[in-house]
Amino acid sequence: MANLDIQPKRTRREAYFEHHLASAKRSLKGLSTAPLASLMTIGVLAIALALPAAFLIAVGQIKDATKGFEKPGTLSVFLRADADEKAQQRLFTILSADENLQSVELKSPQQALEEFKAQSRLGEAVALLKDNPLPAVLKITAAPAQRTPERMSALAERLKARADVDYVSFDQRWVERFAGMLEIAERLTQIVGLMLALAVLLVVGNTIRLEIQERVEEIEISKLLGATDGFVRRPFLYAGVWLGLFGGIIAWVLLNVGLYALRGPVAELARSYGSGFAMGYLPLSATLKLLLVSVLIGWLGAWLAAGRQLSKIKLR
Amino acid sequence: MISFNQVSLRYPTGLPALREVSFELEAGELVFLTGHSGAGKSSLLKLMALIDRPTSGSVKVGGHDLAGIAGKRLAFYRRQIGVVYQDHRLLTDRSVFENVALPLYIAGYRQPELGQRVRSALDLVNLLEKEDLSPLALSGGEQQRVGIARAIVTRPPILIADEPTGNLDPKLAEEIMALFVSFQQVGSCVVIASHDLNLIKHWRRRTLVLRSGELIDDFRPD
Q1: What local confidence, expressed as pLDDT, does residue B19 receive?
Q2: Phi, psi (5° rounding) for residue A139?
Q3: Which residue in B has a C-alpha nearest to residue A218's C-alpha?
Q4: Chain B residue with minimal CA distance to A4?
Q5: CB pair distance less than 8 Å for A5 and B157
Q6: Is the CB of residue B149 less than 8 Å from the CB of residue B127?
Q7: If residue B77 lies in a helix (H) or strand (E), which one and from where to where?
Q8: What letter does residue B56 receive in the DSSP assignment?
Q9: Quick one: which of A120, A214, B52, B84 could link to B161 by a disulfide (CB 3.0–4.6 Å)?
Q10: In chain A, which residues have their Cβ closer than 8 Å to the Cβ of B51?
Q11: Whole-number mean pLDDT of chain B?
Q12: Please, what sign has the CA dihedral across residues A148, A150, A154, A159?
């Protein structure tokens, strides 16, 4: 085309970044011009983001707290009360030589009592007892090859058949069921999380749709004056990013307040089970993930809504 | 510079807006486009500004067939054209300065050049002292002049104006026409749609006459 005199003197890249900055500032200012409406939207986003995050944290914390539960391949063999120290040592020696077992640990009745006292905080009550009611225990870990349910059951049966053995604790099924329940809870949380992420998309999308409808004339004029689709869309994308970011920040605050409120009671409960487990606040990596996901969902909601709405605008 | 070849346009209702219109305009030419209301003047201008596309025929600008222009190229094409709209099309939540600055801002201009160009354009239409006002605080004629300042601020090679002097008193209309002539003299192609026959007679320029979508005359004064 002849006689063009419209090319900017500065490089296009500089103008491009300046427009990004200006769009970010302007969309932020746009949110502050209707503070109540913006706060309500951000509040809805925060709750929708905090809920699945809270469930995920809960499942993660329960997993952490139950890490010390019965490990796969372990058995507790309780000896008869009349099995004396010699009998205990004999059985310990026999089992230690068994190739099917990875490790064997003997806990004398005295050691078991000390442990019980320390973990249950019933020391004073136990001290009133004349005799130690606890038997000696052999903590056994099977060799990796033996850790199938069938082989573990057979091992338990073999040990139970020994003369000095009173009872074999092999509660692997409970642990498996518990792990299964945790797995289901985790899946459910992911499904709920996806649904709530969709809700966030819709909320952001609707907010951006309304904003575009309010600014149709400005968009039309800008396009008539030579604005590209990207130029027109940019402020709305930033509005989505801001909504997501603020929603994420408030969700983070809500989560940490919730964790703070639960910290004491959970620690108390863990102590009663002899665990030193304590709930922590949201770690930095989880915080960054939460904010990143919030921003991405905000951006995506805005992008979808802006693309759809802007394509509907016909120039006159 | 601008070439229409057998261009026809139909409204979505099916009624014809333009019928097989052909003409060529050169760079540095000022042309009036006249005809009664509904003759097709605005439709023809919309084709030049790529707001509409022809139903048949071809429109070429600067050697480019406009049929193939879309996306970013469409946006950049529109930056080459200054358009004065009959209904002004100003943003009422922005100041006069911001309205005139908008095409420069879109094209990537920034301060201080942006400010200099905007003030220069506002000075040409005698509105420099009103740069901070909202368009709502201006009269119809002043709004018209803001629209003109916005159209010329990028010094476009093609300037299109739809009834640009309709709301202006005779003295201001004269000044605005002189402004358009000054653009023509530096090589811009200026197309002015008007049904003001006195204005057209006074300025004695090439005049395309439309009637019911047909080009019925291409008058060239000696």
Answers
A1: 92
A2: -90, 115
A3: B91
A4: B157
A5: yes
A6: yes
A7: helix B71-78
A8: E
A9: B84
A10: 224, 315-316
A11: 89
A12: positive
Cβ contacts of B1 on chain A, cutoff 8 Å: 2
ipTM score: 0.89
Q: Which two tokens stand for residue B197?
A: 């026959």
DSSP state of A140: E
Instruction: Determine, for residues B75 and A228 on separate chains, whether the beta-carbon distance falls below 8 Å.
Output: yes
Distances (CA, A) of A184 to A84, A177, A180, A191, A192: 46, 10, 6, 10, 12
Query: Which stretch of A66-75, B76-85, B113-122, B176-185 has the lowest confidence by average pLDDT?
Result: A66-75
Instruction: Please give the pLDDT value at position A273.
Output: 67
Average pLDDT in the B71-100 region? Answer: 90
Which chain A residue lies closest to B151 (C-alpha atoms)? Answer: A225
**Rounded to an integer, what distance in angstroms lies between the CA atom of residue A137 and that of residue A109?**
7
Size of interface A-B (CB pairs under 8 A): 85
The DSSP call for residue B105 is H
Q: Check whether A236 has a pLDDT greater than 90.
A: yes
Nearest to B108 among A3, A12, A316 (CB): A12
**Mean pLDDT score across all residues of chain A:** 83
> Which of B48, B35, B36 minimizes the C-alpha distance to B9?
B48
What pLDDT does B57 receive? 92
Residue A310 has pLDDT above 80, yes or no: yes
Q: Is the pLDDT of residue A261 over 70?
A: yes
Select the residue of A6, A8, A12 nearest B156 (Cβ to Cβ): A6
Q: What is the mean pLDDT of residues A198-222?
A: 90
- 3-state class of B57 per DSSP? strand
Closest of A166, A158, A185, A144 to residue A59, by C-alpha: A185
Which residue is it, tokens 């102590």? A271
Query: Which residues in chain B have Cβ-Cβ distances shorter than 8 Å to A6?
Result: 79-80, 107, 154-156
Contacts of B157 in chain A (CB under 8 A): 1-5
- CA distances (Å), origin A118, targets A79, A112, B11: 22, 10, 90
pLDDT at residue A3, as a whole number: 45
Share of chain A above pLDDT 70, in %: 89
Q: Compute how many other C-beta atoms are within 10 angstroms of the C-beta atom of residue A148.
A: 11
